Amino acid sequence: MPAPGENLRINPDRLWSTIHELAEIGPGIAGGSNRQTLTDADAEGRRLFQQWCEAAGMTMGVDKMGTMFMTRPGTDPDALPVYVGSHLDTQPTGGRYDGVLGVLAGLEVIRSLNDLGIKTKHPIVVTNWTNEEGARFAPAMMASGVFAGQFGLDYAYGRKDMDGKTFGDELRRIGWVGDEEVGNRKMHAYLEYHIEQGPILEAEQKQIGVVTHCQGLWWLEFTLTGKEAHTGSTPMTMRVNAGLAMARIIEMVQTVAMDAQPGAVGGVGQVKFSPNSRNVLPGTVVFTVDIRSPDQAKLDGMRARIEKEAAEIAAALGVGCAVEAVGHFDPVTFDPTLVSRVRAAAERLGYSHMNIISGAGHDACWAAKVAPSTMIMCPCVGGLSHNEAENISKEWAGAGCDVLLHAVLETAEISG
């Protein structure tokens, strides 16, 4: 079918207003958002999104992971749907746009099609995946991972937060356990729009990131076991210091990542000391190492070296060391046809663009296992994300949503 004309655009003011209205639910303390997955704020945000979608003529389906599927029917009852989406859950100190932009841009696409009186052959489904962030329940991208057959439902339901609450119990508590079997839906294609979460597009002064690949990832959770002891009266030579072992491992992770340049990153973002008292050496330290690369061999080599050297560091200090992989996905190459449609849409609309590799994981990484998939990115100020100061402009948001509209229409096929 021919590509839609250049005159087709979304309503950027409406998209912008919708984003900031949702941000009033689960506000952070510094202008951002705290709508962690399966919290009361998450439930309230879901209900508002449902209301908006139903007002736009969509019908809701919910699977047993709580993922929301809002459907605009197509003219061909046998045509597989085109899925568009991301996530509404946030980090504890998250921004207003991470994930939210992709879900509400999907809604804006539907609203714009309604305004323009355009019907499509394929249904269009706007999706809110549960627990993309992984901030409360590891691993990240859990619902899309179950959908793609990477995790079992029982495994997901059994995951615990830092307070020992399970994913399954919390999903039931907030009332969002659906009746659909996870993964039973078939997709014609999947498109996800997201802020870059990095500085490249802004630095290059490009409006659109045409995402060709996504980095692979390992999350390695280390549990170090030392001996609780008084920090003042225990001689330095008689300590079994799990905290010291952690510090040396963090430094080692930095070295491993730097040795793997270019195209690799590594660091530690979460640490839990026990008993976490000022004057007690920790008996247990739990922390997570996050390593990423678009190169499979490099990624796996980093993991092997980190696990080997961590064990050596701990042993030298008499500290016990156990490691569990709590999150993983291989590097992803997105569908070339969909990537070309995104690029062509940006050119047709007159938006500057460049190819980009996603440094962060997204639900599109798992969707790519079961259907042709791709992503679109817009810049974010200073590349800052997972921070309440995360910021984008209305113009950036609107440009990417215009590209999404065109790519979706070309994929879903205008009818009549």
Strand residue content: 15-25%
So what's the oligomer here? Answer: single chain
Secondary structure class reads: alpha+beta
Coarse morphology = globular
- Count all strands and give the number: 17
Helix amount: 25-40%
Q: Detail the poorly predicted runs.
A: none
Largest sheet: 9 strands, mixed
In round numbers, the mean pLDDT is 97
- H and E order: HHEEEHEEHHHEHEEEHEEEHEEHEHEHE
Radius of gyration: 22 Å
Terminal residue distance: 12 Å
What is the tally of helical segments?
12
Task: Note down, in words, how this protein is organized.
The chain is an alpha+beta fold and 416 residues long. The model has no long low-confidence stretch (mean pLDDT 97). Strands 1, 2, 3, 5, 6, 7, 14, 15 and 16 form a 9-stranded mixed beta sheet that branches. The protein has a 4-stranded antiparallel beta sheet with strand order 10-12-8-13, with helices on one face. The chain has a two-stranded antiparallel sheet with strand order 4-17. The protein starts with 11 loop residues before the first helix and ends with a strand. The protein is globular. 35% of the residues lie in helices and 23% in strands. The protein has 12 helices and 17 strands. Helix 1 packs across helix 12.
Give keywords.
about 425 residues; alpha+beta; 17 strands
